[in-house]
Amino acid sequence: MENSNKIQDIKMQLKKFQIILSIAFTGFLLANCEKENKAVTQKNPEIPSVQKLSNEQLLDTLQLYTFKYFWDFAHPSSGMIRERSNGDNNIVTSGGSGFGVMAIIVGIKRGFISREEGADRILKITNFLLNSDRFHGAFPHWYNANSGKVQPFSNLDNGGDIVETAFMIQGLLTAKSFFNLENEKEDQLRLEIQTLWEDVEWDWYIQSGKNVITWHWSPNYNFQINLNVSGYNESLIVYVLASSSPTYPIEASTYHSGWARNGAIRNNKRFYDINLPLGEDKGGPLFFSHYSFLGLNPRGLSDTYANYEEQNINHTLINRQYCIENPKGWQNYSAVVWGLTASDNHRGYSAHSPNNDLGVITPSAAISAMPYTPEFSFQVLRHFYENLKEKTWGPYGFYDAFNQTENWYSKAYLAIDQGPIIIMVENYRSQLLWNHFMNNEEVISGLQKLDFIGPNF
């Protein structure tokens, strides 16, 4: 066993070295070709550099660098993921840490870390959560990573955030399926995940007299924020998990009247001759089609209201076509520069979309759509990496966003934007996270309770 572990460690180190060597060699060639190519690439940014990584090399590179945000930049004592690279290093995010749990699984799959290293890190996270503030089992949006106390997200938001909780539980249930070996460490990890899962009182977040889940609850302010989790947006996973809970489940009627608004969730209009089953006109920001579907597999998934594969593909295509048509005339929007979603911008932060277009492109938007529009997403990835890399790429992969009209390029990273990149690229490559999340029998039962139909149930 000891020799086997040593061999595996050597193999992983060799894989890391191969990727890094490939990147370095390509960088050397690009640097030597720079003078010859400079005039051409400035004239036509769609012409790629002379030396290109293969598709597999490019995805390996993207995932390795993005993984480093969740591995190297995680808070050392808690294992939780820092909210952003340019903020308070002691503020960690629950939802972003749920994405981080899934990123660690990708890191194991791709040989960036060992299975044991990944299990140790996730155990650090679950131990932190078990011994930190929870609010009827739900996690706050932010924690102080040193104390485990809630870090208020806003004046009234110092309690449980059921949406952030769902993103964390989605990651943990994926890990519970992945770490399936019968040994002391993985047995303990599955036990701690199950405890955290069973402790969430989903039904507590339904206010008396209302049949909809409420986003926030605080011991000081009760439900004063009074924000409903109502569709269509990024929060479908809340209702799926609330229906699936083995301890505090909601009724199916809460899904239909609260989330789906008795059918008012439907759109069914055409934009650029593309049908949009659900949501606001032109689809809204692209993270709507990412966050809930990091684990929830939309392929062949449908319910009373939509086919979710069609929803996510068409949402992406509409977002892309809007950028190509570029009605506001922003600089360089095109078939290789598209993708509107929530991110930093030159003024602060906003949920960018066709209905809220500030000229800001967020790499996470198009790249995380790779399972839906692989050819188009690859075009964006190659252009950003090969032609804009000097301004858009840093130690943890692509920076958060840029606006070429304003000549503004972020130098920050956000956990909730980095997470979908590494996770959805892996779902494109192997369906790894989809397979493990959907392997939970409780989740399948919850989906069936809500009248979902999938390829395997």
Describe the overall structure:
The protein has 457 residues and is mainly alpha-helical. The chain has one domain: Alpha/alpha barrel (Glycosyltransferase). The chain contains 15 helices and 13 strands. The strands form six sheets. Strands 1-2-3 form a three-stranded antiparallel β-sheet. Strands 4-5 form a two-stranded antiparallel sheet. Strands 6-7 form a two-stranded antiparallel sheet. A hairpin with a 2-residue loop joins strand 6 and strand 7. It is globular.
Structure summarized in a few sentences:
The chain is mainly alpha-helical. It has 15 helices and 13 strands.
Structure keywords:
457 residues, mainly alpha, Glycosyltransferase, three-stranded antiparallel sheet, two-stranded antiparallel sheet, 46% helix, globular
Element layout with pairings:
Blueprint: H1 2-43, H2 55-71, E1 81-82, E2 91-93, H3 94-109, H4 115-130, E3 142-144, E4 160-161, H5 162-178, H6 184-199, E5 216-217, H7 236-244, H8 252-259, E6 266-271, E7 274-278, H9 308-325, E8 342-344, E9 349-351, H10 363-367, H11 374-387, H12 389-392, E10 393-394, E11 397-398, E12 402-403, E13 408-409, H13 415-429, H14 432-437, H15 441-449
Helix pairs in contact: 1-2, 2-3, 2-13, 3-4, 3-5, 3-13, 4-6, 5-6, 7-15
Bin the strand percentage.
Answer: 5-15%
User: Order of SSEs, N→C?
Assistant: HHEEHHEEHHEHHEEHEEHHHEEEEHHH
CATH class: Mainly Alpha
Biggest sheet strand order reads 1-2-3
β-strand number:
13
Classify the fold: give the CATH topology.
Answer: Glycosyltransferase
CATH architecture level-2 label: Alpha/alpha barrel
Shape, per Cα inertia axes = globular
Report the average pLDDT across residues.
Answer: 91
Given the structure, what is the number of helices?
A: 15
Note the gap between the termini. 39 Å
Helix proportion of residues, in percent?
40-55%
